[in-house]
Amino acid sequence: MGLTKCCILILCFAGVLSNSINISNPDENQTQPFIEIGGKYYLISTTSTMNWFGAMLYCRKYDSDLAVIESEAEMNTLSSYLTTNGNIGKQFWLGLTDLAEEGKFMSIKDGRPMPYAKWSFGQPDNTGRNEDCVHLWPVNNIFHMNDDHCMVLHYAICELRQPKKSCDVCDLKNFIEKFMQNTNLSNCPN
Ligand SMILES: [Ca+2]
Ligand SMILES: [Ca+2]
After folding, report:
1. Nearest ligand to the CA atom of 135
2. Is pLDDT of 133 > 70?
3. 9 occurs within a structural domain
4. What are the tens digits of pLDDT across the range 62-82?
5. Where's the C-type lectin domain (predicted)?
């Protein structure tokens, strides 16, 4: 077998094994790899931290939304991926918020109630009556969920959008859009 043919075969095989899709952001001419973990494609962004709204906009640029974990299996798969890929000290925004109604956490993806929760002990506690956005944080090296102040800076986990369904549950998205228009988001405490 010729060297070129061999290299092509190896490259093809590597492509299949890694199961990633590159999505480009036309505004900034950047491409990011979405990695398949447990049947969904995620972009785990660890280059810079953002507040929750910034993280939401970041995902949107790559045709995705902040991730919403839908089952214990998904939580375990994603959590073990993060743990084994050097992310144990990091915290990540998810696409869940109770901004619309205190205590009722909703998925930003489809406006439905939070489908699955793995709160860490004592959470959600709405500290300072001002914690409305959900993130993943490691407790004893295992990722759990916590409600946090939306302006705190964390990394983002985006998930690639599934094929479009009719948008009959967009109330929460519309609410967040209005909230963002009327809020000064540049004031981001660290
Ligand atoms: Ca809250
Ligand atoms: Ca909390």
Report:
1. 2
2. yes
3. no
4. 999 999 999 999 999 999 999
5. 37-159
